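Lab intake sheet, docking and co-folding queue.

SAMPLE TYPE: protein with bound small molecule
LIGAND NAME: pyridoxal-5'-phosphate
LIGAND FORMAT: SMILES
REQUESTED OUTPUT: full 3D complex as structure tokens
PRIORITY: normal
SUBMITTED BY: R.K., bench team

The fields below were copied directly from the construct record.
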Amino acid sequence: MNHGFETLAIHAGQEPDPYTGAVVPPIYAVSTYKQDGVGGLRAGYEYSRSANPTRTALEEALAAVEGGVRGLAFASGLAAEDTLLRAVCKPGDHVVIPNDAYGGTYRLFARVLEEWGVTFDPVPLGDVDAVRAAMRPQTRAIWVETPTNPLLNVADVAALADVAHDAGALLVVDNTFASPYLQQPLGLGADVVVHSTTKYVGGHSDVVGGALVTRSADLGERLAYHQNAMGAVAGPFDAWLTLRGLKTLGIRMDRHCDNAERVADLLLSHPKVVQVLYPGLPEHPGHEVAAKQMRRFGGMVSFRVEGGEEAAVAVCDRARLFTLGESLGGVESLIEHPGRMTHASAAGSPLEVPADLVRLSVGIESIDDLLADLSQALG
Ligand SMILES: *Cc1c(COP(=O)(O)O)cnc(C)c1O
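RESULT FIELD (auto-filled):
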């Protein structure tokens, strides 16, 4: 379908049900399918770990909105990551990861994959030369997040795709923070996009899920084989909720961006704020690259508070409308202290985050209410 983003989000993979005309793909709560004679599968469905029509609808929609050829839906973002890495890496292989990777991604490399002989190097991905210098003959992939969590650093996807491909490696982009509405890495040269659909794609803090989308059919087929062989698939209820969220991704993201821009402005002019991290600000070191590869700058804003860790924790505690909690990307605004919450497991590692840092997932509530709450929380 050669359509605009919102049209694809609402219609791709979501033809009215051929049997009833139901406008929305039904939840196929079923494990197995009647065969018309041995091996006579209807529409290819055999067993729901291998394929389920509700999941297929989500997978086709995700492939369409990322501009890819194959989408695969998983039980969580980390299940998607694990499946990808075990499909493309073997013992002795090496991966370059961001030096401020999502904590769970870092843990997967450091505590799980390393045990299986896959090594990795954390590198500042904003520095293309540093990434090139970290490449080894055994490097199978460069793992990119942009913007990163929680420091909102930006990496140049097209430049890193060249570095990866020159070395015969894959470029993987975790596109969770931007969402496919704001950034489409496959069009910039990435081979695989990873999502925690738990975040913006689902968008309502009511379902955990993950996805992979590939640019090539071959790699898609290999990953689909592993998806079935390893079995960490999205169930039909979760796939349905995620698909429901995806339909409104575009309008939600525009409001997230509108609100985040206003929040960043308020923080910039606040005497208790030492630094504001938001790629939309012209002084952000990744601003130009972000402007080149993103439609807008997203709904995540981090900032550092005068007075150190205690002051940052106090801001989190005083917030009312911003709910104190982990995760991000839902319609409701969240606030958290990465050092003690989402990134506590990175303490003492190269991925440790500043103690005076506060992270906001700016939701789509009325902006005046959000600004008032932040002002009172800052005191
Ligand atoms: C949350 C998150 C993940 C992991 O996804 P889950 O759905 O929680 O397993 C991976 N990458 C990023 C950037 C995330 O924010």
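REVIEWER NOTE: Residues 76-78, 102, 104-105, 145, 149, 174, 176-177, 196, 198-199, 208, 210 surround pyridoxal-5'-phosphate (CB under 6 Å).
SIGN-OFF: pending second check by T.M.
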